[in-house]
Amino acid sequence: MYFIETWFGIFIVDSELNVVDSKLYSEDVDEIVRLNRDFDWSYVQGFDAEPAPLGLEREFRLNLWGRYEERYRSLLHEVGHQVCEGDVEVSLEDRGEDVIRAVETLDKFDKSINLLGESVKEWALSHNVGDVGSGEEIAQDILDGEISESSFNNSVVYQEVKRVSEQLMSLKKARDRVLSYIEREMMGFAPNLTKVCGPVIGGRLISLAGGLKKLAMMPSGTIQVLGAEKALFRHLKDGSEPPKHGVIFQHELIRNTHWSKRGKLARTLASKIALASRIDYFSGEDKSKTLLEDLEKRKKEVLQ
């Protein structure tokens, strides 16, 4: 016995392509979609059937398929649409989960890099090593040989600082790879959001919201203060000044603007982010050009 799975039912056939039994689905679109996703193995096992060879299935499609499918043809378009829509939704959620994990990983890298950078800088300062910059700059200068062992007057300390510097720069390279991954993924499944606020801010918003779908469902006012939950709770508890923005402060539009104008621009940016995330989730069309033009127009109005 063999089984042949079609979008409208399951058929049990013998080696001569005689239909021994069949399980045709009800003419309900939702039920057909569900059964296309959840194959009924118990029905097949009841006949001890195995998948039909390709040749036998091909013959079934050529000679018998149409006879049974005819009553379902009016439902084909809607069934196909719902199946594809469901697959896209799962794909978006899966990719969103990966971005969330990547952003969390990026944050861990940043913490480690900052800690090691501070250690390298403090070590250099304690030995009066030249005109020091950031810990990362010092580490790179050590690895490039611009800061030599003689600068420390202590070979043991120099070797230790060099070892930490190697770890620091290795972490930086790993961080850059994670960042590149976030950029690629964000452009792949959330291009409008990425172009409006950048891949890292967009990824961070998806992470804070718990996924692209949840971000798309949020009102712009909530998006505006994502990442500022502590300040928001403080405001609700003791009446202190409410936060004007959360992680969107990292956007140059807000960060590089005088504090007195940031509130208005934060509201504008949050509204465009809300629109961008909804377009990405529900349609996938690229409408970033219009969103960015509107954002630039509002920026000029606020700053004039």
Brief account:
This protein is mostly helical and 304 residues long. It has helices at 29-37, 41-45, 54-63, 65-69, 76-126, 135-144, 155-189, 191-197, 199-209, 212-217, 220-224, 229-238, 252-255, 259-282, 288-303, and strands at 2-6, 9-13, 19-24, 50-51.
Write structural notes for this entry:
The chain has 304 residues and is mainly alpha-helical. The chain has three domains: 62 residues, no CATH class; 93 residues, Helix Hairpins, CATH 1.10.287; 115 residues, Orthogonal Bundle (Serum Albumin, Chain A, Domain 1), CATH 1.10.246.90. It has a four-stranded mixed β-sheet with strand order 3-2-1-4. The mean pLDDT is 82.
Number of domains: 3
- Number of helical regions: 15
The level-1 CATH class of the largest domain: Mainly Alpha
Q: Which strand order do you get reading across the main beta sheet?
A: 3-2-1-4
Structural class: mainly alpha
Task: State the main characteristics.
304 residues; 3 domains; Helix Hairpins; 6% strand; Serum Albumin, Chain A, Domain 1; 4-stranded mixed sheet; 4 strands; mainly alpha
Which helices and strands appear, and what pairs or packs with what?
Elements: E1 2-6, E2 9-13, E3 19-24, H1 29-37, H2 41-45, E4 50-51, H3 54-63, H4 65-69, H5 76-126, H6 135-144, H7 155-189, H8 191-197, H9 199-209, H10 212-217, H11 220-224, H12 229-238, H13 252-255, H14 259-282, H15 288-303
Parallel strand pairs: 1-4
Antiparallel strand pairs: 1-2, 2-3
